[in-house]
Amino acid sequence: MDKNLLLQDVLSHLQSDLEQATLAAVTAHEAATHEENVAENKYDTLGLEAAYLASGQARRVEELRQTLITWRQLRPRPFDETQGIKLGALIELVDAQEQRRWLFLGPQGASMKLQQAGHSIQVLGSTAPLGRALLGKGPGDEISLSMAGGAQSFEVLSVE
C-alpha cells in the first residue's frame, strides 16, 4: 500500500469537508443576518438561534482549516525499528478474535475510513487512545486498552 496516496486521500476528504463546512457557515450567517429573522418581541428567538448556529459553523470551519494545515505538514517515512511507530505509519493489527485491521496514524482531526489495494484502512489520530498506545511500538508488540466493556488487546503484525 502507498502511504503517500493514503495521505492524498485524507487531504482530499478534509478539503471536501472544509468546502462543505464553509458553505454551511455562509448559509448560517446569511440566515442569522437576514431581515426576516429580526426579533419582533423578546420571545422571538429565531435570529438568536441562527446566530448560535452561524457561530458554531464558523468554529467548525476553523477546526477543519487547522486540521488540514497539520495534515499537509505530515511526511510519511519508512518504518524505522529504532524509533518505533510514528506519525505517518501504516500499521496492521490483529485483535484477540483474530480480526485484522489496517490503521494509518496521523495527527488528530481526520477520523475516516479509506480503501486501498482491497483493504479498508482506518485513519487514526495520535491523540486517540489506540493511537497513543501505538506510538513507539513495533511488529510483535502487544497493546492492551481499557474500554468501558473491558480490556481490548491487539498485536502489531506489521508496520510500513
Question: Would you write up a description of this structure?
Answer:
The chain has a 6-stranded mixed sheet. It is elongated, with a radius of gyration of 21 Å. Helix 1 (3-33) packs antiparallel against helix 2 (46-72). It has 3 helices and 6 strands, in the order ααββββαββ. By secondary structure, it is of the alpha+beta class. It has helices at residues 3-33, 46-72, 129-134; strands at residues 90-95, 100-106, 112-116, 119-125, 142-147, 150-159. The mean pLDDT is 90.
User: Which residue ranges are poorly predicted, with pLDDT under 50 across at least 5 consecutive positions?
Assistant: none
| Element-by-element helix/strand order | HHEEEEHEE
Portion of residues within helices: 40-55%
- Please describe the biggest sheet, giving its number of strands, its sense, and whether it closes into a barrel: 6 strands, mixed
**Strand order within the widest beta sheet:** 3-4-2-1-6-5
Rg, alpha carbons: 21 Å
The total count of strands amounts to 6
Class based on secondary structure composition and strand pairing: alpha+beta
How many distinct helices? Answer: 3
| Rounded average pLDDT | 90
Give the CA-based shape: elongated
Distance between the termini: 9 Å
The percent range for strand residues is 25-35%
